[in-house]
Structure formats: structure tokens, C-alpha cells
Write a structure and sequence with these properties.
Distance between the termini: 63 Å
Number of domains: 1
CATH architecture: 3-Layer(aba) Sandwich
Radius of gyration: 19 Å
Number of strands: 6
Number of helices: 10
Helix content: 40-55%
Strand content: 5-15%
Largest sheet: 6 strands, mixed
CATH superfamily: HUPs
CATH topology: Rossmann fold
């Protein structure tokens, strides 16, 4: 038990640091927690409950699972997650998203099922936020996700970008916040197991075929020789030397790429 408490304290401090640096939460506000049923989202829910108790910010949480028909959670798993959230005074709701499954089945071009799923889930979370009058949505992206997204965007989206700890949508009408952004995925998995969170492993049929998994494998391979490779990439994101990037030559893009 002491090992769990020590680990929890360590992760709560990381959440606290993220909140202090990036101004994620305001006292007394209501926050939607994006719940997928995986280790990250349940870890976020658990840590936010304890963080809220520790800081006395009087935050109210509204957990939302977007069911897009991909059968990622069965009814028993939903019940277990609801019971877990109920114990932490987190309201749990499931909302349906029929459009995402249609787009995936129809192989809507450009066909990227992970992007289609993420976009559909985000859209539904914003819709319910608007419906209940909530301005803030918390997602469980972690440090590994941050680094992977940078490489994904460079290699496949043809841009140098990732995501922010706090991102505004629709000119500030809503904000996406990421309280786990300073925590590595390995620590989250360790905590989820130690705390016996009722998480489910990703059973999506596209899991092993998506680009993120390829990037994840590439980073793991690099870590064998350079254990701190993720921190190096994170440092690079904060050490951008724009004078050595080619955005100044954008007007010649067609000519350069045609060479």
C-alpha cells in the first residue's frame, strides 16, 4: 500500500506542476473527463479525484464515454467503470456516435481510422460540453503521446507540430486540457496496475496497423541506445531555431518539391 501511495503522490505532483505551469484548472469549475476505459483515462480520473481533494479546488467532474459502435467496451466493463467513477463522485455518461463507424466502414478518404475515431470523439465531447454549459474538456494524453504526435506530424502530416497542455477551441469558447502531459506512459501503466483500476486493453481492430504504433515502436528501438530519447525530443520542442527552418521559403514549395 505504501508503494501505491508513494506512486500516487509522485503523479499528483506532476499533475500539480502541469496545472501551475499551464493554468489548466480554475477553482469551482466543472470539467468533462474524456473516458475511453483505457489505463490513461481512468488514471486521469483517479488522479484528478485525489488532486481535487488535496488542493481543495472544488472541481466537479463529468465523465463521458463516446460509444462509436466499435465495441471497445462491453456492458460489464461499462458497469465496472461507472462503479469506479461513482466512488469518486464523478458522474458517468455514455453518448453514441453513429457517424464515426459509418465513415470507417465506408473507408472515407483519406482513410485513417484513428484520425476519424479521434475526430468523432472530440466532436461529441464538444457537443455535450455545449449542451450542459461546460467550457473545459480534459483528455488523458501523456508525455509519450506528445512526443509521438510530433514525429507523426513531421512524417505523415508534413508539418512540425504536436499539441498543447491547454488548447482553446472556437476562439476560447472551450478549452482542451491535458493534466497527464508531464507523465510518461510507463508510469501510468504502473499506477493503473498498482491501484487496480478497472481499465481495459485496447482491442481496436486497427490498433496494430496504425501509424502511431509504428512511431511508438521506433521510439522504443531508439531508447535501447538512448534511454532519454523522449526527453531529448521534448527539449527540442522547446528549443526551436526558426531561423534554420524553411518556412521562409514557403512561396517556393512547389518548385522545391518538384526538383
Amino acid at each position: 500500500m505504501s508503494r501505491l501511495i508513494n506512486l500516487r503522490c509522485k503523479l499528483i505532483n506532476k499533475v500539480k506542476n502541469a496545472d501551475n505551469m499551464f493554468e489548466l484548472f480554475e477553482s469551482g469549475e466543472t470539467v468533462i473527463l474524456g473516458i475511453s476505459g483505457g489505463k490513461d483515462s481512468l488514471c486521469m480520473a483517479d488522479l484528478m479525484f485525489f488532486y481535487n481533494e488535496k488542493t481543495r479546488k472544488n472541481l466537479k467532474f463529468y465523465g463521458v464515454y463516446v460509444d462509436n459502435g466499435m465495441q471497445l467496451l462491453n456492458e460489464k466493463e461499462k458497469e465496472d467503470i461507472k462503479a469506479f467513477l461513482d466512488k469518486r463522485n464523478i458522474v458517468f455518461n455514455t453518448i453514441n456516435d453513429e457517424e464515426t463507424l459509418k465513415s470507417i466502414k465506408n473507408k472515407t478518404k483519406p482513410f485513417n481510422p484513428c484520425f476519424i475515431c479521434t475526430r468523432g470523439r472530440r466532436k461529441k465531447l464538444v457537443e455535450i460540453a455545449q449542451k450542459i454549459g461546460v467550457k473545459k474538456i480534459a483528455l488523458a494524453h501523456n508525455l509519450d503521446d506528445l512526443v509521438e504526435t510530433l514525429l507523426l506530424n513531421i512524417l505523415f502530416a508534413r508539418e512540425i507540430s504536436s499539441f498543447l497542455p491547454k488548447q482553446e477551441l472556437f476562439s476560447g469558447e472551450f478549452h482542451i486540457v491535458r493534466p497527464l502531459v508531464l507523465i510518461e506512459s510507463g508510469l501510468i501503466l504502473k499506477y493503473a496496475r498498482e491501484a487496480m483500476l478497472p481499465f481495459v486493453v485496447n482491442r481496436c481492430v486497427y490498433k496494430d496497423k496504425n501509424r502511431r504504433e509504428r512511431i511508438r515502436g521506433f521510439i522504443k528501438e531508439l531508447e535501447r541506445d538512448v534511454p532519454y530519447i523522449k526527453k531529448n525530443i521534448l527539449r527540442a520542442m522547446m528549443n526551436c531555431k526558426k531561423e534554420f527552418l524553411w518556412d521562409k521559403y514557403r512561396e517556393y514549395k512547389k518548385e522545391i518539391l518538384d526538383l
